[in-house]
Design goal:
The chain is α+β, with helices and mostly antiparallel strands and 210 residues long. The chain is built from four helices and nine strands; from the N terminus they run H-E-H-E-E-E-E-E-E-E-E-H-H.
């Protein structure tokens, strides 16, 4: 049995780590706002594997879920959301070898992009570093990514491998529900109150008599 003092210190450290994990879990919860049914990953070796790496912060080191590129090192994710987001940061977890992506290009609000479309300048681009623990965050330009309903992530290269592997992509930011006020207005106008227009109808009738 460890000394009492040592046990107390370990307990406090454990509580601190637990609180930090919970906080990070909340910070990186935008994965819950992704429309997974319509999320698309181009050049994935195993169909559907691209969806699995958008997962809880607590599972970022679960290396059982992975997306691996197929024909070459490129990967492209089309990520639709169920509302609008303000994107503040991105984490990319890979292996400490040549399969880790080396660059990330980000496009906003351009649904259904393909590799033929990525020749245009991105809204932001990053040079990536090896990250096996999810400890490196790439801060986005919040002004640019303030009203995003669709996000495209393009990984054009890695550190020299034939294929690219990604185990986790974390998205940090805020979520806003989309409102469609036009529908509400139409519903209101579709059922007018006759009494509200009575005087107007009388005026029209009177004018017709003259």
């Amino acid at each position: 049995m460890p000394p009492h003092g040592g046990h107390g210190s370990t307990c406090c450290e454990g509580d601190s780590h637990k609180n930090e994990t919970q906080e990070m879990g909340v910070e990186y919860s935008l994965y819950t706002k992704i429309n997974k049914d319509n999320l698309e990953c181009l050049n994935e070796e195993c169909e559907g594997s691209g969806k699995t790496i958008f997962k809880p912060w607590e599972e970022r080191l679960n290396f059982d879920t992975v997306v691996e590129s197929d024909a070459d090192a490129e990967l492209l994710f089309n990520i639709p959301f169920t509302g609008n987001i303000k994107l503040k940061g991105i984490i990319v977890v890979g292996e400490d070898n040549e399969t880790h992506p080396s660059r990330m290009r980000i496009f906003k609000n351009r649904p259904s992009m393909t590799f033929d479309d990525v020749s245009i300048p991105p809204d932001q681009e990053f040079v990536l570093h090896h990250d096996t623990q999810g400890s490196l965050e790439y801060a986005t330009k919040v002004v640019t990514f303030n009203n995003v309903h669709h996000l495209t992530l393009h990984f054009p290269s890695n550190f020299g491998g034939e294929k690219t592997k990604i185990y986790y992509i974390g998205l940090r930011g805020e979520f806003f529900v989309s409102h469609h006020h036009g529908v509400t207005i139409c519903n209101y106008e579709s059922a007018p109150n006759i009494s509200d227009h009575k005087n107007q109808l009388d005026e029209i009738s009177g004018h017709a008599v003259q």
